[in-house]
UniProtKB/TrEMBL annotation:
Residues 4-45 form the Methyltransferase type domain. GO terms for biological process: methylation. It comes from Methylococcus capsulatus. InterPro entries: Methyltransf_11, SAM-dependent_MTases_sf. Pfam families: Methyltransf_11 (PF08241). Keywords: Methyltransferase, Transferase. This is Methyltransferase domain-containing protein. One of its GO terms (molecular function) is methyltransferase activity. The lineage of its organism: Bacteria, Pseudomonadati, Pseudomonadota, Gammaproteobacteria, Methylococcales.
Amino acid sequence: MKGLPLGDEACSGVYCSHVLEHLALDDFRKALINTRRLLKPGGIFRLVLPDLAFYISQYFANTSPDAALEFMRNTGLGELSRARGVKGFVQELLGNSRHRWMWDYPSLEKELGQVGFEHIRRAEFGDSLDPTFNQVERQERWTNCLGIECRRI
């Protein structure tokens, strides 16, 4: 959230896989601003994260009395138990493994547009306009997930 130690417009592309959902909303917005700052004009921001719309559709299709429990577990939004004591406090303070915010395409498109990204589109595994991203993408990170590619203009 403080930004990477790089100058403005230092990158042609930024790739973010399963990170943004671990941020609180205000930190998420700072991360988007910092990402745009890092990109050169025409630079690509490509991201993938869990798709809230997918999980909601699964929840509505689930007729089990445990549907809500499964939704919370599958989205990483719930906690089965809370660590207590000093160890629990330190884990909560330093750890960032649980999901803090979930996104669907319309809400994420709006957030990206508000910080100045353009040409925002839903992306699929391996379909980047820049083949360099193919070197870091992994199919399993895209399954049932939301991918987006956009540009700083």
